[in-house]
Specification:
The complex is a heterodimer of chains A (about 500) and B (about 350).
Chain A lengths: L9 E5 L9 H5 L5 E4 L2 E4 L9 H5 L5 E5 L12 H13 L4 E2 L14 E3 L20 E3 L8 E3 L5 E3 L7 E3 L3 E3 L9 H13 L4 E2 L16 E5 L8 H6 L2 E5 L11 E2 L6 H7 L7 E2 L10 H14 L6 E6 L4 H9 L5 E5 L8 E2 H6 L4 H14 L7 E5 L5 H10 L3 E4 L1 H6 L22 H4 L4 H25 L15 E3 L4 H7 L2 E2 L3
Parallel strand pairs in A: 11-21, 12-13, 13-14, 14-17, 17-18, 18-20, 20-21, 22-23
Antiparallel strand pairs in A: 1-4, 2-3, 5-19, 6-22, 7-10, 8-9, 15-16
Helix pairs in contact in A: 4-14, 8-10, 11-14
Chain B lengths: L2 E7 L5 E2 L1 H9 L9 E6 L9 E7 L2 H15 E8 L13 E9 L10 H16 L3 E5 L4 E6 L3 H8 L5 E2 L1 E6 L15 E3 L2 E7 L4 H9 L11 H14 L4 H8 L4 H5 L3 H14 L8 E7 L2 E6 L8 E5 L2 E5 L2 H7 L5 E3 L7 E4 L3
Antiparallel strand pairs in B: 1-10, 1-16, 2-9, 3-8, 3-10, 4-6, 4-7, 5-6, 11-12, 12-13, 13-14, 14-18, 15-16, 15-17
Helix pairs in contact in B: 1-10, 5-6, 6-7, 7-9
Chain lengths: ~500, ~350
C-alpha cells in the first residue's frame, strides 16, 4: 500500500498582473520554489518553508502565501500534526526533527499574568524626568557584609566581593553557536551586546577570531561535546557557562549536521570538516552534583577564580532542587531554560513534550533558594520563550535576575520563525553557513537592529517600572505582589505565589 | 498621606506626652481619624531589665491563657496587668490592651549570641502568625507602643499618654488605605527596641518581604511598615552594620553617583547595593525609626515624602511638618530639610 504524498503545507501564488519577471524570487529562494518558465514564473509550493524571504524581497508585492491550503477531514484527536507525523515515521522509521521552540498547544502563563501600576497612594515615577536604574550584577553576593566601624564617617569594608558581571540592562543574548548560526549573525549579536552594555553566549561552538574584539562581552560555553574548548577560549570569555541541558530538548545532547561544518566552523569547533558534531546527552565527567561541583571548580582554577561560572539547566519537574544543588557548588549563576526555548534542531517529541514552562520554573527555583537561605549564592537567569519587554518584567517579578533572549534577537535580524533552521539553508543568512546566503546578512545593519531591540525593551521596562513606582530593578526582582494572575488555576497561582486579579 | 513626628532628648531628660499629643493633632490634615499611635522610651524604669510586651487581646478570657503558657515555657512573667484605658466617646474599644514584663530564660537558646532577643523575636513571630486573637504590638525593654483607631487626641486620651514620661517619643497620625479601623495596622510598629513610624507606601514590599522571610521574619500586620522594623533589626542588630550604612542599604545612592565616587567609597557602596539589593526600599516614604539609644529619620531616594528636622538644645525633632515641630517647641533654634536618602541621626549622650 502506498501512503501517497501529504497535502502541501503552503501554497505560494503569484499575481501575474503584478509580476514583472525580474526573477528576484528565484535568486532569493534557496529552497527552489521558483523557476522562470518562458514568460511566466512557475512555483513549486511543496518546497516552501514560509520563510517569507521572497515576499519581503519582491519589488511588486506579487507573491502570496497561504498556509494549509488543503484540509484533512477535521478531527479533534487525530489532528493534522499527528497524522502527518505517523505518515512520516511509517515511511522513514526515524525520529522526527524540528526547529525553534515548543509548538504544543499549551497556555502561555506570561499571557495570564498582569502587571501593576501606581494610582494616588503612591506616585508613578516618570523615567523621562527621574533616574531609572536597570543595572544588574550577575554572580555570587555575600549573605552579609562585614563593615569595620571606626566611628563617624570612618567605615571600612572588610568583606571581599567575588567577581560579578555588570549588565546595563537585565537582558542578555542567549547562546547560539557559530555553526548553528552564521559568523555574520554572531558578529551582529556581539556588536549589539557590546553597544548596549550586556553580554551574549557563544553556544557550544568555540570562539571565532572575528569575535575576539568583543570577547569581554562573551559568555563562553562548555557543553557535553566540549567543542572549541581550550584555555585560550576560557580565558577570552567574560564568564563561562556549563550547559547541562536545554529547554528545547531536556535530557539529550546537541546535534550540528555535517553539512553546516565548513572549513571555518571546523577550526572554531576543533572538529573535522563535514563531520556531524554530536554532543552526548550527559557530560561524561558529570554523573552527580559532586561531579558538577568539580567541573565548576576546575574551570575556576583554570581561570584563576577571575570569571563567574554559570550553569544552565533545562526547566524540568525537579529544577528547584537541582538549582539548590548548583547553588551549593561554586557556581555564580543558574540559568533555567524553559520548554519554549528555541533550537536549531531537536527531536519533535522532546521539543513539544518534555520540560516545564519558564514562569513556573523561575518561581519555584527562586522560592526554594530563599527557603534554604541561599538565594544570594547564585544569580538566576530566565531563558526560553521571552517574547517582549512585558515578559522580561514578569520574569524578573517572579524572581529572575536577568533573562536571555534567543529567538527574539534572531527575529530582529529578519528571522521569520519558519522553523527550518536544521536544513542549513536559512535565506536570511542566519542559520546557514552557505557563503552566498550569509553574505545577505550585513553585520553593520543587523547589529543595529538587535541593539535597537534591546534598547526598546529596556525603555519599555523603565516605563513599566516607573508606572509601578519602582526606580531600581532590584525592587522589581521577586516582587510578586506586583503581579496578578488572570484566569490561572489555584494550583499554578500557588506555585507562582501570585494572587488572582482583584485580590 | 499620614503625619509622623519624633523627638529625642540627648541628655535623657524626660518629657511627658502632652507636647507630642499636641504636635500630632497639629497634623490632623494628614490623617483621617482612623489610626494614631505613640511610642515612648524610658516609660518603665521599674522594670527596665524586662521585655515589656504590649499585647492586643481580642478577648482576655479566651485568648490570654495560650500566650501565658507560651511565655512561661520560654521564661518568667515578672509582672503583668491591663494597660489602663479611659473610654472616649468616639473610640470603640475593640481590643483589650495588656502588658507583660517578661524575662526570657537564656539557657533555652544558648547557641545564639543574643539569646534573649532571639527568644522574644521568636515569641512575637509565633504569636502574631498564629492569629489566635492576640497580637504583640511592642516588645522592647523600658519602652512601649500605644495605638488605636481614632484621632491622635482621642488615642492619647484613651491611654492618658500625658501620664507617661520618656526621653524619646514617636507619634503617628494615620490616613489608612490598607487596613482601616484595625488597631494592629496603626503605627508605630515595633520589634524589640526598634520602633518605626512611616508615611508613604513601599512599592518594593514584595521583594523586601520575601528577602526578610528567608531570615526568619514573618510579616503579619498586612502593611508595609512592619517590614522596615524587621529590615533594620536584621541589618543593624544581626549584621552589625552602623545605622548610617543600614540607611545606605535601604535608600542607596544612584549608580551614577556611586560611579563618581573615590575608589574606597565606590567599593563600599557597590558592595552594599550588591549584598542588600533586595532590602532597598522603593516608593515614596519618610520614616523615623528609634531604638533606646538613638532616633533616625530618612526618606526614599528621590524624596517623595516630606521630612523636616529641628533642633533645640539637647533635643532633636524630626517630622513631616515644621508646624508640628514648632507646636511642640516654639523656641526651636534651627530647622532644616534633609536631602533624599540622607539620614538625620540623634543619639543619647554617653
Amino acid at each position: 500500500m502506498t501512503i501517497g504524498s501529504t497535502p502541501p503545507r503552503y501554497r505560494v501564488s503569484i499575481d501575474r498582473d503584478q509580476c514583472m519577471l525580474c526573477e528576484r524570487c528565484v535568486e532569493e529562494c534557496p529552497y527552489g520554489v521558483f523557476r522562470r518558465n518562458g514568460e511566466r514564473m512557475s512555483v513549486n509550493s511543496r518546497q516552501c518553508t514560509a520563510c517569507h524571504r521572497c515576499i519581503a524581497m519582491c519589488p511588486r508585492d506579487a507573491i502570496n502565501l497561504e498556509e494549509q491550503p488543503v484540509d484533512y477531514r477535521s478531527h479533534p484527536v487525530w489532528t493534522r500534526k499527528v497524522r502527518e507525523a505517523i505518515y512520516n515515521q511509517a515511511r522513514t522509521g526515524r525520529i522526527i526533527l524540528a526547529g525553534m521552540g515548543n509548538a504544543g498547544d499549551y497556555p502561555v502563563i506570561f499571557d495570564r499574568l498582569v502587571l501593576d501600576a501606581c494610582q494616588v497612594t503612591n506616585p508613578a515615577i516618570d523615567p523621562l524626568r527621574e533616574p531609572m536604574e536597570l543595572r544588574t550584577y550577575l554572580g555570587k553576593k555575600p549573605s552579609r557584609l562585614e563593615i569595620r566601624n571606626g566611628g563617624g564617617d570612618d567605615v571600612e569594608l572588610v568583606t571581599e566581593l567575588t567577581p560579578n558581571l555588570q549588565l546595563e540592562t537585565p537582558l542578555m543574548i542567549a547562546h547560539m553557536s557559530y555553526g548553528a548560526i552564521s559568523l555574520n549573525a554572531q558578529l551582529s549579536l556581539a556588536r549589539a551586546a557590546a553597544a548596549t552594555g550586556t553580554f551574549m553566549g557563544t553556544g557550544e561552538g568555540g570562539l571565532h577570531q572575528a569575535i575576539y574584539p568583543y570577547q569581554d562581552r562573551m559568555i563562553v560555553q562548555v557543553a557535553s561535546g566540549r567543542f572549541g574548548v581550550d584555555i585560550n577560549y576560557l580565558e577570552r570569555g567574560a564568564a563561562i557557562e556549563i550547559k547541562i541541558g536545554q529547554g528545547a530538548k531536556p535530557g539529550i545532547g546537541g546535534h550540528l549536521p555535517g553539512e553546516k561544518v565548513c572549513e571555518d566552523v571546523s577550526c572554531t569547533r576543533m572538529i573535522p570538516v563535514g563531520s556531524d558534531a554530536i554532543s552526548p546527552a550527559p557530560h561524561h565527567d558529570i554523573y552527580s552534583i559532586e561531579d558538577l561541583k568539580q567541573l565548576v571548580r576546575s574551570l575556576k582554577e583554570a581561570t584563576e577564580w577571575k570569571k563567574p561560572v554559570f550553569v544552565k539547566i533545562a526547566a524540568v519537574h525537579n529544577s528547584a532542587a537541582i538549582a539548590a544543588g548548583i547553588a551549593r557548588s561554586s557556581a555564580d549563576a543558574v540559568v533555567v531554560d524553559g520548554f519554549r526555548g528555541g533550537t536549531g534542531a531537536a527531536p519533535r517529541v522532546f521539543r513539544d513534550h518534555v520540560g516545564i514552562p519558564i514562569e513556573a520554573a523561575i518561581a519555584s527555583v527562586d522560592e526554594k533558594l530563599r527557603q534554604q537561605g541561599i538565594r544570594n549564592q547564585v544569580s538566576l537567569v530566565a531563558s526560553g520563550g521571552i517574547r517582549e519587554s512585558a515578559d522580561v518584567a514578569k520574569a524578573i517579578a517572579l524572581g529572575a535576575d536577568a533573562v536571555y533572549i534567543g529567538t527574539a534577537a534572531l527575529v530582529a535580524m529578519g528571522c521569520r520563525v519558519c522553523g527550518t533552521c536544521y536544513r542549513g539553508l536559512c535565506p536570511w543568512g542566519i542559520a546557514t553557513q552557505r557563503e552566498d546566503l550569509t553574505a545577505r546578512l550585513d553585520p553593520d545593519v543587523e547589529s543595529e537592529h538587535v541593539a535597537n531591540l534591546i534598547q526598546a525593551w529596556t525603555l519599555e521596562l523603565s516605563e513599566l517600572m516607573g508606572a509601578a513606582g519602582i526606580n531600581s530593578i532590584e525592587s522589581l526582582r521577586g516582587n510578586r505582589d506586583r503581579l496578578r494572575g488572570y484566569l490561572l488555576d489555584e494550583g499554578i497561582l500557588r506555585v507562582l505565589d501570585v494572587k488572582p486579579v482583584g485580590a | 498621606m499620614c503625619g509622623i513626628i519624633g523627638v529625642i532628648d540627648r541628655g535623657r531628660k524626660e518629657m511627658d506626652g502632652t507636647q507630642i499629643r499636641r504636635a500630632l493633632a497639629q497634623m490632623n490634615e494628614r490623617g483621617s481619624g482612623e489610626g494614631a499611635g505613640y511610642a515612648v522610651y524610658g516609660c518603665y524604669p521599674e522594670y527596665r531589665d524586662c521585655y515589656a510586651l504590649h499585647v492586643f487581646f481580642d478577648n482576655i478570657h479566651e485568648n490570654k491563657k495560650e500566650v501565658d503558657d507560651l511565655l512561661e515555657q520560654w521564661g518568667r512573667i515578672v509582672h503583668e496587668g491591663q494597660i489602663p484605658t479611659y473610654d472616649q466617646p468616639n473610640l470603640r474599644k475593640i481590643h483589650a490592651p495588656w502588658r507583660y514584663f517578661f524575662k526570657p530564660d537564656r539557657s533555652l537558646m544558648s547557641w545564639s549570641p543574643s539569646p534573649e532577643d532571639d527568644i522574644v523575636t521568636h515569641l512575637v513571630m509565633r504569636i502574631n502568625t498564629d492569629h489566635r486573637g492576640a497580637l504583640v504590638i511592642s516588645s522592647g525593654k523600658n519602652m512601649g507602643v500605644f495605638k488605636a483607631s481614632g484621632w491622635p487626641e482621642e488615642v492619647a486620651d484613651f491611654y492618658r499618654i500625658q501620664d507617661y514620661r520618656g526621653y524619646l517619643w514617636l507619634g503617628h497620625n494615620r490616613y489608612p488605605t490598607n487596613t482601616p479601623g484595625w488597631w494592629g495596622g496603626a503605627h508605630p510598629f515595633n520589634l524589640l527596641g526598634w520602633s518605626v513610624v512611616h508615611n508613604g507606601e513601599i512599592t518594593s514590599y514584595g521583594t523586601n518581604q520575601r528577602f526578610i522571610r528567608s531570615y526568619g521574619y514573618h510579616c503579619t500586620m498586612f502593611t508595609d511598615t512592619e517590614v522596615v522594623a524587621y529590615l533594620i533589626d536584621l541589618l543593624v542588630r544581626k549584621h552589625g552594620l552602623p545605622e548610617k550604612m543600614a540607611v545606605r542599604a535601604l535608600a542607596p545612592p544612584f549608580w551614577d553617583e556611586i560611579d563618581a565616587m573615590g575608589e574606597r567609597e565606590r567599593k563600599l557602596n557597590t558592595a552594599i547595593r550588591l549584598t542588600y539589593g533586595p532590602a532597598l526600599m522603593n516608593g515614596p516614604f519618610a520614616i523615623v525609626v528609634a531604638n533606646p539609644t538613638m532616633m533616625m529619620g530618612f526618606t526614599d531616594r528621590i524624596k517623595l515624602r516630606p521630612l523636616v528636622a529641628g533642633e533645640c538644645g539637647d533635643r532633636l525633632y524630626i517630622s513631616s511638618e515644621e508646624a508640628a515641630i514648632r507646636r511642640m517647641e516654639p523656641g526651636v533654634e534651627r530647622t532644616w530639610m534633609p536631602r533624599a536618602g540622607e539620614p538625620v541621626i540623634g543619639r543619647v549622650n554617653g
